[in-house]
Amino acid sequence: MNLDLSGKSALVCGSTQGIGLAAAQELAQMGASITLLARNEEKLKSALATLSSDLVSQNHGFLVADFNHPDKLKSIIENHLAGGVQYNILVNNTGGPAGGPAIDAGLDEFRIAFNQHLVCNQVLAQALVSGMKELGYGRIINVISTSVKIPLNGLGVSNTIRGAVANWSKTLSNELGQFNITVNNVLPGATNTVRLSSIIENKAKKTGNSESSILEGMKNQVPMKRVAEPEEVANAIAFLASPAASYINGINVPVDGGRTGSL
Prior knowledge:
Blueprint: E1 9-13, H1 18-29, E2 33-38, H2 41-48, E3 61-64, H3 70-81, E4 89-92, H4 107-135, E5 138-143, H5 156-176, E6 181-188, H6 194-207, H7 211-220, H8 230-241, E7 252-255
Parallel strand pairs: 1-2, 1-4, 2-3, 4-5, 5-6, 6-7
Helix pairs in contact: 1-8, 3-4, 4-5
């Protein structure tokens, strides 16, 4: 099986912690040159130091951008690419919206989440696809949520926006497949990240239950009786980025230990 990414380059978003950082580390181990993208420069520098550079061809770096400002992101990525940089791999990943019922969400909550997720994904895809076409190898991988299969209670805005991203991705896969560019979604279940800790903390405040009991309840919903580690989700991302996944296009890949109650 060909998992070699030497000579390939990847732009990985939300890559200072959690799933994004684990994905960047895995892709680097497979030989890719990595550009990290996030809003905190100090955290980016720390993350950069964790990437392996075993090959002479590898050249890692980072870009500072805030997904709350799609226009600024567009300017940053266009200026970056103007120097002749091209990418084979784009990993779209950013933190999810705050929890709460959809009916209680303000209009700004939907607008902000739409910008952070779908609009910024579109900005980056538009910027990178021409280079992927020239290189003859492209992988766009969107980290979304199992809620695109079965909506999760208490995550109204997230359920809505994630579904929009999933259908955007499927549409792109139909349009870009002819250029040897695949577009796929990875759907993490409960994963040991800052995001999960925040969700548990908020549930504890609302229900009065302890954080440990809420975590145990989450684990019990999973056939494997545990939550995922970021590296386990990153493995799916890395496989979809590899030459071995050349004919896998336009699919959702749950990485949830079997929790989702549908195929």
